[in-house]
Amino acid sequence: MDNSQEIDRALRISQDLQRKAEAFQSRLAEVTGHGSDDSGLVQVSVGLGGSVSDVHVDARAMRFASHDLADAFKQAHAAATQDMQARMADAQREAFGDELLSGILDGSRSPDEVFGDMRRTAEAGLDASLDEIERLRRRLS
Fold this sequence. Notes:
Layout: H1 3-28, E1 33-36, E2 42-46, E3 52-57, H2 66-96, H3 111-140
Antiparallel strand pairs: 1-2, 2-3
C-alpha cells in the first residue's frame, strides 16, 4: 500500500468514527429507561445519569404502607436504570459494534473514557496523515 492509499485509508477511518460518534450522540439524547415495581403499580422513567423523567403511581399503590411505597419507588427506579443501561448498550452496539462495549458493559470503563480514547485515536490517525502529507509535500517541492 503506497502512502496516498494509507492517507486515504486513515482519513476514511477517521471520518467513519466521526459519523458513528455523531450518530451515537444524537441517539443518546433519546435514550430513556422504563421500569416498575413487582406489583406494576409504580412506574418510573429515567434519562441518562439516572435522573427521573417521569413517574406514574396507580391509585391502588396509595394503600401501601409508607415504607412499602418507598421500596416500590426504589425498585421501579432500579428497573428503569437497568433498562436505560440496556438501551444505551444497544445504541452503542448499533453505532460501533461489540468491540466498543468491552469495558462499558462490565462497568470498568465509562462512555467518556471510551469516547476519549476514540477521539485520541482518530486525532492521532489524522495527525499522522497530516504529517505524511507534509512530508510528501516537502519531498515533492
